[in-house]
Amino acid sequence: MKILIIQQKMIGDVLTSSILFEALRLKYPKAQLHYLINEHTYPVVQNNPFIDHFIFFTPELEKSKIKLFNLAQTIRKEKFDIVIDAYCKLSSNFISALSGAKIKISKYKSYSSFIYTHPIKYKNESTSVAGLAIENRLQLLEPIDIELSKIIIKPKIYVTDSEKEKAKQVLLESSINPSLPIFMISVLGSGTNKTYPLDYMARVIDFVVQQTNARILFNYIPKQIEEAKSVFIACKPDTQKQIFMSVFGANLREFLALTSHCTALIGNEGGAINMAKALNVPTFTIFSPWIEKKTWASFENENNRSVHLKDYKSEFFENKEGKIIKKETLTLYKEFKPSFFLEKLNVFLDNILNK
């Protein structure tokens, strides 16, 4: 049996959909399992023992219909028995339609359901600690006789011992003792509408340092350096002494290795939070007002806590569609003051530091 799973675009989505491979391997141990992903997301699924082969969706493919057609033809020649389209956008619809697979599974959408032998209607409410993002992906396995009632799979990232050792040396060379508390701060989201106001984030970091005296690392990429610096500058002088701006992952694998040594990751909801959970690093997540907490607040417990403006000011969301909320995100963010959740953050810090 030969199975292709398609999950393009974002790192968090690619990591989340990787759970399908573990479930498939349990049911079909001899199957050939292939994963079509965007090239830049590969580091989060690198070394995954359940995936046999990767197919990369490159930036060139996104720009060229001819190259997309050629990719679809290449996939057709592979003669997949099953295609599971976890992405379900135009490009993956096209690839699925031309795949030649006898079984084609995806999320139900009115405009594309005719392409698939099994268009699955996602549910709206979570029934487990896994959260909707994971539960709905697992639904895609229903048509191939995998008993979902017995499965709760958590995404996993596989960092090598050598990568961890290299990251440890980076910390030691920066006078950071890996055995003492270290917090990775996701100071910036993937966009403005997923980034907690920078002055508010500075207050959160001040609180973390005040309560723990921990060393602080920032998660950012080089092009975000000015925004990261503005958060640093907005922090109190005593807090700044605990922030090591120069210690950051130059690439995604380095970030993962550094995070694996951290006591917890705190900050904006997004790929960094999902990656920390996959590394079994505790997380405290600040959700953007327009993101549904019930979808992405996975495996919530004393080690993984999250906050959303809706938890404190539900009236701001009454009788409003998601599109309207998204347009009002920046205004709503200003209402989401750190004082709302510092007590909950303090409980989280006490828990992870006193184990």
Automatic annotation (TrEMBL):
Taxonomic source organism: Confluentibacter flavum
SUPFAM superfamilies membership: UDP-Glycosyltransferase/glycogen phosphorylase
GO MF annotations in UniProt: ADP-heptose-lipopolysaccharide heptosyltransferase activity
GO biological process, one term: lipopolysaccharide core region biosynthetic process
Domain of life of the native organism: Bacteria
InterPro entries: Glyco_trans_9, LPS_LOS_Heptosyltrfase
Protein name as catalogued: Glycosyltransferase
GO-annotated cellular components: cytosol
Keyword Calcium among UniProt keywords: no
Sorted UniProt keywords: Glycosyltransferase, Transferase
CDD domains: GT9_LPS_heptosyltransferase
Family matches, as Pfam families: Glyco_transf_9
